User: What shape does this take?
Amino acid sequence: MVSEHSSSKTVCVIGAGPSGLVAARELRKEGHTVVVLEQSHDVGGQWLYNPNVEGHEPMGPKDMTRFLEVHSSVYASLRLVSPRETMGFTDFPFSIKKGRDSRRFPGHREVYLYLKDFCEWFGLRDCIRFNTRVEYVGMVDYGVVNGKDLKWIVKSREWKRSNLIDDHDHSNKVVEEVFDAVVVATGHYSFPKLPSFKGMGSWKRKQMHSHFYRVPEPFRDEVVVIVGNSLSGQDLSMELVEVAKEVCLSSRSMNITEGLSKVIAKHENLHLRPQIDTLEEDGKVSFLDGSWIIADTIIYCTGYSYTFPFLDTKGIVAVDDCRVGPLYEHTFPPSLAPSLSFIGIPRKIIGFPFFESQAKWVAQVLSGKRTLPSWDDMMRSIKELYHSRDVAGIPKENTHDIADFEYCDRYGDNVGFPHLEEWRKQLCISAITNSLVNLETYRDSYDHDHELLQEAFQSPHFTQQAEPQAIAL
Assistant: This one.
């Protein structure tokens, strides 16, 4: 619904990654006063590569209420799995720039530079406080006012690299502020999710989550077990097989793609194994089919959990087996909307445009230009989503996995956001299809995309661009 009423709010955005930056842009477009709090020294979020993981727990902290010291999960060789043409925000194409990584599936630094360009183009840097960690976000007088009129206390601390050594270092003063609204844009690829195997706690050799993997050299001549054959598991397997003595890729399912089968057939020292059964102190790793190996290192490529250690909602918003909820359309908690919102929760989407549609919706609801459904209607929608997922046999942990272009288009209808262009959808599907057959080469072999690329480059997305002064305040 569209309303004529418009009002300006003071809004705290937590995180200066892709979702946080586009949130700041859209909020300022709507006339809101924005402060972005970012724990790193620069923009980029997950795409701000940090090679230094020394001295940190290789499995991540066991207590999910603790802050994770290493934020980015990006490893040195990581390249995009989607072509760059599909990724750009609607009015800021991810174009090739002279002297930079010109590949269609570029490395992670190119994404960081794109986000840095976006930040500069739209004049966002002046509203970002870097090296600032949010330690507490809580409601002011909840129960006295309704969700619409809530205000939020945000406590943050400026921190430097030296603070990482001691969680109890309180040398920097805590800043306490009150905001009309908070937008949580902290991403979901930072807090390791780990399996549970018999003997895992007593296995004496090296175990680590892929979150802390950076380069292959430390694993030279080792026997490495990689748990999980998702994107990172496949990438690490293909990289480590060149330096390791032996690599075992342990998967819950032995039904693998043609592309992965080709890679395994090509390398004598790469083996597919079923799920781990037990780990023993002498280094033995036993698999469910009865086979075993003596390994030097186990790397868990087992995904990530959502966690918001700073957020106190009195139990209204909770994380249950990777389901953040209740959230209306993966964005608004009905009892706290619109003063609290989340951008960037959904997975298996073309991320940047979807985050943009989320940001527009949040900004316009806060300004009063749009209104949300009633609490009852939002809760009914959430329950229907959960029920439909249950009926389809989709585990709770996959609640936020979208994998549906039609849903993305319907979501954008909330604010009149343009539907994804057909060429964008088809280029994405083409990349996925190619990767299933040609896992090692799909990022550099895509002759079949020529006509789609021509259509993309002739579209308004690439021929028009927003003026930088359009939202300068």
